[in-house]
């Protein structure tokens, strides 16, 4: 009797590569095969391909973030340009407000809130629609019982979604910061310096922001759409990438460290005076020897 192929699955916590090397060394000793002979007894370990696939998906995810953030950056640049135009259009208004007592901090805060408001609302809408599209895709696949070999359970990682939103708000604030600082340096109207400064409260500030956005509906809409599209595409790409990763990794489930060992070849290296070309065949008694000698 002989054995054509041995299939080994190391217990959890054991290194599959190390177990493979130990088994090969033991079998070579039992069958009198030189250590440097690579053809007499051969093996294949799933740990290598699994590691390569993991590295591949790390690269794919990095590329997805690069593309998504690039699209998002285009929207953020649009926000910055719009804030610059807004600051120029409101030069007179800002000068009068400063003459009435508004501090540079109040001017900067107002313009920053406009920038953050547009990016946050548009970004959140893009995230919700992106996640909704991914969930609808997953529901459709489950409903029809589709079993695609390389695409399963598309989903959006919650941590990645929160990271995208936080990054969106931060970049939105930075996009509005430079125009806001530039607007805050506008010199007040000299004739208004003697006026009594008004009380500036948050309610009035938010009313002013919404009035400004309503006055420029087309400009605000186009800017918001750029941000919306960037976060939407990032979300969809992340979800589709996760579905691809789940589908491919499903093939490795249960055998991430599995080792196949076989021998139907002949020796290529002499061993202790024995000639090359000896036929090496695995035997049933190799199995208990492996269990007894390999932890």
Describe this structure in words.
- The chain has helices spanning 16-30, 47-89, 91-99, 104-143, 158-184, 202-215, 217-250, 286-293, and strands at 5-8, 42-45, 259-262.
- The protein is mainly alpha-helical.
- α4 (104-143) crosses α7 (217-250).
- The model is unreliable at 189-201 (pLDDT under 50).
Quick summary:
This protein is mainly α and 295 residues long.
Structural class: mainly alpha
Mean pLDDT: 76
Any low-confidence stretches, pLDDT <50, length ≥5?
189-201
Count of helix runs: 8
Work out the strand percent: under 5%
- Radius of gyration (Å): 33 Å
**Spatial order of the strands forming the largest sheet:** 1-3-2
Describe the sheet with the most strands. 3 strands, antiparallel
Total strand count, please?
A: 3
How much helical structure, as a percent, in the residues? Answer: 55-70%
Order of helices and strands: EHEHHHHHHEH
Please identify the oligomeric state.
Answer: single chain
